[in-house]
Write a structure and sequence with these properties.
Layout: E1 40-42, E2 46-49, E3 72-80, E4 87-92, E5 95-101, H1 103-125, E6 137-143, H2 151-159, E7 168-174, H3 184-194, E8 201-205, H4 210-230
Helix pairs in contact: 2-3, 3-4
The structure holds zinc ion.
Length: about 230
């Protein structure tokens, strides 16, 4: 099968190393002389100017004096010719920023970006920011440096979204890896159980313990969903 690439004459005769066809999104000009690491399918790029980027940092290889040529964030697909699927990569001007996502993860990021746009837009308009701002239910949890999570604050946050069937966003700040006054795994159980109806659960957290906390929330939501389905 002829690779579907229009922008190169080199495809009159495909390189011998390219034994399969290109993905339909590929825009690369593959050359016979390309060595193994260069045998990569690239898509076209979507570019977004970053006019809000901090003024005191320039992308690697660029000067702060390039002020009339603002940084861009670039999004594109890439796939080595021996890989089974594409990843979505994010770049900044000419440099990759080491953000590479599967299509499912990129979808989550797109949801998270859309949700944040909702929050930001609501804040600008002076309306209460959450949970009605974005297209989702928001739970905000802050865990103290001592690992302490105020149970009343946690329960109040959880109560406001219980049974909500929109996508849920759990924003966690703080220290999830330290035992504190309120057991973090108990918090995950309460939050997860309340989010049984959520269409999708996004845990926006970082740092030690964040991944396990997110996984525990999803696990408890699934348990609660099954429990409710069984008792219907
Ligand atoms: Zn290709």
């Amino acid at each position: 099968m002829t690779p579907t690439v229009e922008n190169t004459a080199s495809f009159a005769v495909p390189p011998t190393w390219l034994t399969g066809s290109c993905p339909q999104w590929c825009q690369s000009s593959h050359e016979e002389s390309h060595t193994y690491p260069d045998r990569v399918h690239w898509s076209a790029e979507a570019c977004v100017p970053m006019s809000a980027a901090p003024g005191d940092t320039a992308a690697p290889g660029r000067s702060l004096l390039d002020e009339y040529d603002p940084d861009e964030v670039r999004v594109y697909l890439t796939q080595h010719y021996r890989e089974c699927g594409p990843r979505i990569e994010v770049g900044r001007t000419d440099e990759p920023v080491r953000i590479a996502l599967t299509p499912a993860e990129a979808n989550q990021l797109a949801d998270a970006l859309r949700f944040m746009v909702g929050l930001a837009t609501a804040a600008v308009a002076g309306r209460p920011a959450a949970p009605a701002a974005g297209d989702g239910a928001l739970v905000e949890i802050t865990v103290g440096a001592d690992g302490f999570l105020d149970p009343d604050v946690a329960r109040k946050a959880v109560r406001s979204v219980a049974g909500d069937d929109r996508p849920a966003y759990v924003l966690v700040r703080g220290h999830l890896d330290r035992p504190g006054g309120y057991d973090v795994s108990a918090a995950a159980r309460e939050i997860g159980s309340a989010l049984w109806a959520a269409r999708d659960i996004h845990v926006l957290a970082s740092g030690p313990g964040a991944a396990a906390f997110g996984a525990a929330i999803r696990h408890h939501a699934e348990d609660e969903r099954k429990f409710r389905a069984a008792s219907e």
